[in-house]
């Protein structure tokens, strides 16, 4: 499945400072639909290069990270259970505090 | 040479004293303008009629044109009045509105300038900091003459010099749970232009308790974020971020840097959102968040969750109220201070440390040693001590052979054991590095206490700090 995964607000530092990743995610065996939960696991294995605790906590993203599926907060689409479709854009943004 | 040197120091002296008098005069002007404003407020047909502060003048002064704008106001705000969807009605609302800006820094600077210019009736400014030279690249409301003076005073003077007809209120104090309710309750709209997590939670909670809309902006590096909280049934800050992030995720401009224009853009947008709320024109950015990535020139506006029924602050069954707010410990909650000061770790035994003056002695005495600078490479490029070897902390382990080699070279030259010293910017990473070095067999490694900042402070005042 072709997806665009983007990182911002400093999270890109965990993936060699690359913000936009055009990726091809293989569906796990016996699974018909890819969920955000599957994608998070895939990202941890394939994209996160350092300090995974700065991205994940338990099986979800850490506090202070917004996950957006096609420019919509994943709280509105089903969080970990959100099912992804071909060409979806998934963005992870760390909240900023500076000013 | 000598004659030139004499002239330079004379010019520098003159400049210094002229700048001092200039800021003195600006303060006097600011005070006089504030006084004039007070007098005018007490007179129904003052020289400078305006719509500032309570009780609102607008209802009592009728210009005879079917609205309450004086001829001067019509002229001053004419370009607003010419906007069909804004016009007299929105401008009148603006003149009657009151907006509090918390933080007169990178975000607050442009926000305040535009809010003053557009005719917000009463503009409050909260800040406890003083203007510093390293603020100037982004905190554009301040001028060089105000370096060393309170930001609130400087910002208020700038606002008054742009628009003497509005009321500007100065709060030269840190915002705390003890004063936030009283200060914020006097304003219709709150603008969060602060720079740390506990302040953001505190301001949001206070807005919830008082029922005030909050225009929240943030900027760091090349990125910015903007949204409106607690407005028209929309979410509050805690709905979005019920649990504070780990402190290691809270980067600050003083550590990570920020391109000056980025908070400038977000601060302008904060002014815009505050104006939209004050005038009821347009659609405020509630339930949506604007994400600016300035390097790729992309602005993304995303839909965010609505008010959370489970929210501790604004949820359905919450008992959060004024007393709870006043007792809430935001520093404990976020594990970070409301007025961030540089971290000062103390990880090492005294015999593994050396202060910058002692290190200077070693250089003067020509003692053989190796100095490792563990700052990131781009820091090292700003300034470094002579003969120091840059090995950024994350790559320390991988580059141990370089350290061994450097030590061996010194020893071959001198025939004696060389010391190993580690330095960084403020003396925290150097301690972490020494801890690792000890573990990896370099048991004589010592850190230079307080880093390059201490060096600049105690040994070489001409050494650049940043
Ligand atoms: Zn809430």
Automatic annotation (TrEMBL), chain A:
Main subcellular localisation: cytoplasm
GO BP: any one term: tRNA wobble uridine modification
Subcellular location: Cytoplasm
InterPro entries on file: Beta-grasp_dom_sf (IPR012675), Mopterin_synth/thiamin_S_b (IPR016155), Urm1 (IPR015221)
Pfam families xref list: Urm1
Pathway as given in its UniProt record: tRNA modification; 5-methoxycarbonylmethyl-2-thiouridine-tRNA biosynthesis
SUPFAM superfamilies recorded: MoaD/ThiS (SSF54285)
Chain positions found as 1-thioglycine: 99
Domain of life: Eukaryota
Post-translation changes: C-terminal thiocarboxylation occurs in 2 steps, it is first acyl-adenylated (-COAMP) via the hesA/moeB/thiF part of the MOCS3/UBA4 homolog, then thiocarboxylated (-COSH) via the rhodanese domain of the MOCS3/UBA4 homolog.
Recorded GO CC terms: cytosol
Keywords: Cytoplasm, Isopeptide bond, tRNA processing, Ubl conjugation pathway
Residue(s) of cross-link: Glycyl lysine isopeptide (Gly-Lys) (interchain with K-? in acceptor proteins): 99
Residues of the signal peptide: none
Its job: Acts as a sulfur carrier required for 2-thiolation of mcm(5)S(2)U at tRNA wobble positions of cytosolic tRNA(Lys), tRNA(Glu) and tRNA(Gln). Serves as sulfur donor in tRNA 2-thiolation reaction by being thiocarboxylated (-COSH) at its C-terminus by MOCS3. The sulfur is then transferred to tRNA to form 2-thiolation of mcm(5)S(2)U. Also acts as a ubiquitin-like protein (UBL) that is covalently conjugated via an isopeptide bond to lysine residues of target proteins.
Family in the record: Belongs to the URM1 family.
Name this polypeptide is given: Ubiquitin-related modifier 1 homolog
UniProtKB/TrEMBL annotation, chain B:
A single cellular component GO annotation: cytosol
Cofactor(s) this protein cannot do without: Zn(2+)
Record keyword Transmembrane present: no
SMART domains assigned: RHOD
Catalytic activity: [molybdopterin-synthase sulfur-carrier protein]-C-terminal Gly-Gly-AMP + S-sulfanyl-L-cysteinyl-[cysteine desulfurase] + AH2 = [molybdopterin-synthase sulfur-carrier protein]-C-terminal-Gly-aminoethanethioate + L-cysteinyl-[cysteine desulfurase] + A + AMP + 2 H(+); [molybdopterin-synthase sulfur-carrier protein]-C-terminal Gly-Gly + ATP + H(+) = [molybdopterin-synthase sulfur-carrier protein]-C-terminal Gly-Gly-AMP + diphosphate
Pfam families xrefs: Rhodanese, ThiF
Binding residue positions for Zn(2+): 236, 239, 311, 314
Coiled coil: 15-42
UniProt cofactor note: Binds 1 zinc ion per subunit.
Domain Rhodanese: 365-464
Pathway named in the protein's UniProt entry: Cofactor biosynthesis; molybdopterin biosynthesis; tRNA modification; 5-methoxycarbonylmethyl-2-thiouridine-tRNA biosynthesis
Location within or outside the cell: Cytoplasm, Cytosol
EC numbers for this chain: 2.7.7.80, 2.8.1.11
Binding residues annotated for ATP, in chain numbering: 106, 127, 134-138, 151, 195-196
CDD domains the record matches: ThiF_MoeB_HesA_family
SUPFAM superfamilies: Activating enzymes of the ubiquitin-like proteins
List of catalytic residues: 253, 424
Single GO MF descriptor: molybdopterin-synthase adenylyltransferase activity
Keywords per UniProt: ATP-binding, Coiled coil, Cytoplasm, Metal-binding, Molybdenum cofactor biosynthesis, Multifunctional enzyme, Nucleotide-binding, Transferase, tRNA processing, Zinc
Summary of the function given for this chain in its UniProt record: Plays a central role in 2-thiolation of mcm(5)S(2)U at tRNA wobble positions of cytosolic tRNA(Lys), tRNA(Glu) and tRNA(Gln). Also essential during biosynthesis of the molybdenum cofactor. Acts by mediating the C-terminal thiocarboxylation of sulfur carriers URM1 and MOCS2A. Its N-terminus first activates URM1 and MOCS2A as acyl-adenylates (-COAMP), then the persulfide sulfur on the catalytic cysteine is transferred to URM1 and MOCS2A to form thiocarboxylation (-COSH) of their C-terminus.
Family recorded in the similarity comment: In the N-terminal section; belongs to the HesA/MoeB/ThiF family. UBA4 subfamily.
Name this protein carries in UniProt: Adenylyltransferase and sulfurtransferase MOCS3
Organism of derivation: Rubus argutus
Gene: MOCS3
């Amino acid at each position: 499945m072709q997806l665009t995964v983007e990182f911002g607000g400093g999270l890109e530092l965990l993936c060699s400072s690359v913000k936009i990743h055009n990726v091809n995610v293989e569906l796990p065996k016996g699974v018909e639909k890819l969920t955000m939960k599957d994608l998070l696991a895939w990202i941890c294995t394939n994209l996160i290069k350092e300090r995974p605790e700065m991205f994940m906590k338990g099986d979800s993203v850490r506090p202070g990270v917004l996950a957006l599926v096609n420019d919509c907060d994943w709280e509105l689409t089903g969080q970990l259970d959100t099912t992804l479709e071909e060409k979806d854009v998934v963005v992870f943004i760390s909240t900023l505090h500076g000013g | 040479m000598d004659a030139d040197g004499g002239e330079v120091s004379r010019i520098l002296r003159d400049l210094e004293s002229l700048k001092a008098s200039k800021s003195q005069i600006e303060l006097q002007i600011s005070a006089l303008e504030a006084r004039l404003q007070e007098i005018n407020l007490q007179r129904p047909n003052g020289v400078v009629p305006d719509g500032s502060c309570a009780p609102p003048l607008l209802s009592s002064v009728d210009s005879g044109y079917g609205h309450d704008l004086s001829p001067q106001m019509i002229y001053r705000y004419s370009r607003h009045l010419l906007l069909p969807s804004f016009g007299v009605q929105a401008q009148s609302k603006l003149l009657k509105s009151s907006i509090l800006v918390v933080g007169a820094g990178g975000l607050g600077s442009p926000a305040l300038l535009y809010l003053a210019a557009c005719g917000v009736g009463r503009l409050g400014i909260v800040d406890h900091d003083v203007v510093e030279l390293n603020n100037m690249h982004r905190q554009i409301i301040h001028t060089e003459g105000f370096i060393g003076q309170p930001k609130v005073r400087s910002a208020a003077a700038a606002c008054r010099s742009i628009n003497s007809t509005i009321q500007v209120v100065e709060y030269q104090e840190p915002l705390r749970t003890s004063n936030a309710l009283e200060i914020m309750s006097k304003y219709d709209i709150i603008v969060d232009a602060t720079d740390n997590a506990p302040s953001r939670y505190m301001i949001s909670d206070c807005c919830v308790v008082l029922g005030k809309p909050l225009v929240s902006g943030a900027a760091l590096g090349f990125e910015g974020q903007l949204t409106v909280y607690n407005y028209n049934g929309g979410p509050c800050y805690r709905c979005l971020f019920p649990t504070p992030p780990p402190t290691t995720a809270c980067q600050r401009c003083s550590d990570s840097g920020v391109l000056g224009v980025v908070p400038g853009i977000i601060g302008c947008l904060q002014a815009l959102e505050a104006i939209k709320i004050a005038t009821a024109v347009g659609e405020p950015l509630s339930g949506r968040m604007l994400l600016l990535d300035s390097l790729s020139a992309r602005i993304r506006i995303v839909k965010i969750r609505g008010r959370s029924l489970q929210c501790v602050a604004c949820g359905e069954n919450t008992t959060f109220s004024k007393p709870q707010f006043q007792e809430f410990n935001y520093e404990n909650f976020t594990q970070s201070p409301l007025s961030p000061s540089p971290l000062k770790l103390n990880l090492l035994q005294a015999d593994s440390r050396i202060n910058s003056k002692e290190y200077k002695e070693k250089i003067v005495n020509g003692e053989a040693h190796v100095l490792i600078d563990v700052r990131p490479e781009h820091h090292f490029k700003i300034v470094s001590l002579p003969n120091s070897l840059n090995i950024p902390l994350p790559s320390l382990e991988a580059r141990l052979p370089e350290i061994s080699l450097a030590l061996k070279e010194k020893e071959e030259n001198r025939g004696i054991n060389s010391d190993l010293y580690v330095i960084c910017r403020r003396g925290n990473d150097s301690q972490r590095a020494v801890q690792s070095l000890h573990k990896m067999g370099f048991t004589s490694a010592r850190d230079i206490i307080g880093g390059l900042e201490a060096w600049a402070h105690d040994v070489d005042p001409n050494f650049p700090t940043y």
